[in-house]
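I'm stuck. Protein, please.
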Amino acid sequence: MLSLDRIWQILEESVRETLKGLIEQAPNFAAGLVILGLVALVSWLYKLVIGRVLDRTKWRTSLKELVKTFGKTLIWIIGVLIAAMVIFPGLTPAKALGAAGLASVAVGLAFKDIFQNFFAGVLLLWKFPFEPGDFIECEGVRGRVVETRLRVTTVRKPSGELVVVPNNHLISNPLDVIDSQRLRRTLVKTGVAYKEDLARAKKVVEEAVSACQSVSSEKPLDVFVSGFGASSMDMDVFYWTDSRPYEMRRSNSEVALAIKEALDREGIEIPFPYRTLTFDEPLPIRQLEQEAR
């Protein structure tokens, strides 16, 4: 049975050997820290230089950010491997890469969603579906893109809230880039009474919409008679305007007001739902005054 003195002696020797090993490895640790400091400096210089170089190119903003991020990541991976081999002299590049491979498998299984979002971010930055400033809509997420990173994309909703969206969500679902083009076609519905001259009403609507400032003259304006409504002959008015959501709403308001004013001015009725009742037999009409007598 071990005595207390023997246990204390074993602990003392273990601590002494550990401290001795740390002291012997101190130069290696110091060298590793110096290497990491140099890696940080090189990464900063790379970001500074590559940023100036890329600013002279006509590359997309997202592609520039992808090049910067990948370059910095590669610098840090190489730097950490070199620092590890300096701190642990028995570590070779093959062993380091093998350990990194096994670790990456374990980490990949544990953080699958994070890596999915990471690679989705690479695809978003590389394939150019949208840029910061674009207005997008995707499965309940609707707003203007603020920034796209490798894992998440931040979107500012029209009501002001900032939404952080995982990139895998944007890759896996249909995505509508609303203002990817300068102009967008939109629709306003109207109708006139059955008794009105339909050709004349159509011409009045076309002239009223053409005169609106928010309606683009670069592309054609179309007014179609769409069918027979319950109380009116229905018309669909298609026109082109600014693709930004706020400008589209403002334009719809301007066009609807212009159509209403033009039809009123020309005495053309815009009907509201009403019904005409008919009976098989004439209804008896009685005067209330006579009944009261």
